[in-house]
Design brief:
The protein is of the alpha+beta class and 383 residues long. It is built from 11 helices and 16 strands. A 6-stranded antiparallel β-sheet has the order 6-7-16-15-12-13. Strands 2-1-5-4-3 form a 5-stranded antiparallel β-sheet, sandwiched between helices. The chain has a 5-stranded antiparallel β-sheet with strand order 8-9-10-11-14, covered by helices on one side.
């Protein structure tokens, strides 16, 4: 079929042929009177197969209705862009963005110009991104399930409140993330003794939690053998140096053991914040650790690491990690041992469970910004 081309189109053919986009020109009867080579390549047709046809040759049903509506909308609006496809000879569909605009020549005849941009590569990239995002989302769900399990395991390492003989024990644990490097324990040895412990493993997150779990298990093993506190610190130090050989890793620990009558308490600390003994009389004593941080040096534990205390009715003893005391306010001041000591003295006659909450509330009120470190707290009172 011989197609009559308007003068303006003949003048522009050279430009249209070098474009990297498909171009179609239709006359006022919606017949194709021109298609550049890029368009013919996309459709997989020769010029003779393409020219003289209309949109209904390539589209049908809802697709035809859609493309005609978009064309008319574009012609009325002056320009319209819509994502659609070009049916390729053989059944393949080439994704494109179609732009439509109208042009009127000097004789008043209207032509529509359709520009079709092949977005195959963009679509391929989008599909690859979609698949990658689906894989990432699934991996994220797996990680969340693993973290949920890890959190439950970590919570099992938190010290538990209890009553034992003449002693009342209150505990609190709050990791900076869902899992952390602190752990504690309150473990009765039948009616013979009650062991209290808090441990602070360097770092945060999964790696610290895993190491804390191993130290916890080893500490339980030592307690089951009724090892004295000083020897337990030595064995835990050797265990970490031998089996957890991580550069720069260390941990601190404070451990106390109360005898069955609630009057004799032995205490050992290693690089840990000082324990506090708040007497019923109102005095408060700091118990400094006699040993260095563990996991770095063979001789971290001294020859005389244990201190023995005599308790009277109403006396209170507290172990904690530095997440409690190394909390800063807006003026960059620490809550410190003084803040904890003040709470212990001011509320020495307040029920122990209320004192625990008062301490946590004071730390929270002092804090400027989010929690920066794991917090563990163990309070004991003897009657």
């Amino acid at each position: 079929m011989e197609i009559e081309k308007p003068d303006w189109l003949q003048q522009m053919e050279g430009i249209l042929e070098v474009l990297n986009e498909g171009v179609i020109v239709t006359d006022d009867c919606a017949r194709f009177i021109y298609a550049n080579q890029k368009m013919l390549d996309m459709a997989g047709l020769s010029r003779e197969e393409f020219l003289g046809r209309g949109l209904d040759t390539f589209y049908s049903g809802d697709d035809l209705t859609f493309i005609l509506r978009q064309r008319e909308h574009g012609l009325r609006a002056g320009q319209n862009r819509v994502e659609f496809y070009v049916p390729r000879n053989g059944g393949e569909r080439i994704p494109v963005v179609i732009s439509a605009r109208t042009l009127e020549d000097l004789e008043g005849r209207e032509f529509s110009i359709l520009t079709l941009t092949d977005i195959t590569e963009q679509k391929r990239t989008q599909e690859q991104l979609r698949e990658a995002n689906e894989q990432l989302a699934e991996r994220q769900r797996e990680i969340e399930r693993e973290l949920e399990l890890a959190e439950r395991v970590q919570q099992s390492l938190a010290p538990q409140s209890l009553r034992w003989g003449r002693a009342i024990v209150e505990t609190a644990y709050q990791p900076v993330r869902s899992i952390g490097g602190d752990f504690g324990m309150v473990i009765p040895d039948g009616d013979n003794a009650l062991t209290l412990m808090v441990c602070d493993v360097s770092g945060h997150g999964i790696s610290s939690a895993l190491i804390a779990n191993r130290i916890y298990s080893e500490a339980i093993s030592q307690l089951e053998r009724s090892v004295d506190l000083g020897e337990m610190l030595r064995r835990l130090n050797r265990f970490v140096l031998q089996y957890i050989q991580t550069t720069g890793f260390y941990f601190t620990m404070a451990v106390a053991r109360l005898d069955r009558d609630g009057r004799r308490l032995t205490y050992a600390g290693a690089g840990h914040p000082p324990a506090l003994l708040a007497c019923a009389s109102g005095k408060c004593r700091e118990l400094m650790p006699r040993s260095a941080v563990l996991g770095l040096l063979d001789d971290a534990v001294t020859d005389d690491p244990v201190e023995e205390l005599h308790l009277s009715p109403g006396d209170r003893f507290v172990l904690y990690t530095d997440g409690i005391t190394e909390t800063f306010n807006a003026r960059d001041e620490q809550f410190g041992e003084n803040g904890l000591r003040d709470a212990m003295i001011e509320h020495r006659r307040t029920p122990l469970h209320e004192l625990k909450q008062i301490i946590l509330d004071r730390v929270a009120a002092w804090r400027h910004g989010p929690i920066a470190d794991d917090m563990s707290l163990v309070l004991i009172e003897v009657s």
